[in-house]
Amino acid sequence: METSVERSTFEEAYAAGSAPWVIGEPQPAIVELERAGGIRGAVLDPGCGAGEHTILLTRLGYDVLGVDFSPRAVELARQNAARQQVEARFEVADALRLDGESRFDTVVDSALFHVFGPEDRAAYVRGLHRVCRAGGAVHVLALSDVEPGFGPRVGEHVIREAFGAGWRLEEVRPSHYRGVARGEAAAELGVEDGAVVDLAAWLATATRA
């Protein structure tokens, strides 16, 4: 049965400095998304991790809030922002319990959606609906199951099923997610340990009805 990734997995990876999703820069797909005009207004970066996307978008002049359930991740993000001299905002918050006023125009989900099992995924999408303004856009960059890779991966149908009632799914298109292959993951992909690789991903956009 499909289940969510254990939260301890993330804490242990941050503590060990081995998180494969921490690449020291924003995801190229997110950079391209912004350049194409896909981001506007108030922005939420759920599961912000080390803060690369919140920092990028803050530097570009957006009103951004990065949130993560992990205090260790939020502290790392704040350190990264300070080092880059960017006054980015971060808070410790659970993406499965998003609530409050509908105030975000854009959500940038980089590799969060795919870590959830069905029940948590449904709770997450309901929370996104609560905090997005009508007409707000949610962009999801999720690892795809169409090619060999590592980490949790999802099929296109999972995204389509998740953004049903209350949403208009604009598109789901092939993309790439950049990560660091270590240990068994590196061996399975036939690359050196610690190699930076581009993995098959989906980039989906859904608009809140």
Report on this model:
The protein has 209 residues and is α/β, with parallel strands linked by helices. The protein has helices spanning 7-16, 28-35, 52-59, 71-83, 118-131, 156-162, 184-189, and strands at residues 42-46, 63-68, 89-92, 104-110, 132-143, 167-181, 195-208. Strands 3-2-1-4-5-7-6 form a 7-stranded mixed sheet, with helices on both faces. The two termini are 31 Å apart. The model has no long low-confidence stretch (mean pLDDT 96).
In short:
32% of the residues lie in helices and 30% in strands. It is α/β, with parallel strands linked by helices.
Q: What is this structure's SSE topology?
A:
Blueprint: H1 7-16, H2 28-35, E1 42-46, H3 52-59, E2 63-68, H4 71-83, E3 89-92, E4 104-110, H5 118-131, E5 132-143, H6 156-162, E6 167-181, H7 184-189, E7 195-208
Protein traits:
209 residues, single chain
Structural class: alpha/beta
Strand content: 25-35%
Strand count, sense and closure of the main sheet? 7 strands, mixed
* Helical coverage, percent range: 25-40%
The succession of helices and strands, N to C, reads HHEHEHEEHEHEHE
- Globular, elongated, flat, extended or rod-shaped: what is the shape? globular
Which strand order does the major sheet show? 3-2-1-4-5-7-6
The number of E-state strands comes to 7
Task: Work out the oligomeric state of the chains in this entry.
Answer: single chain
Mean of all residue-level pLDDT scores: 96
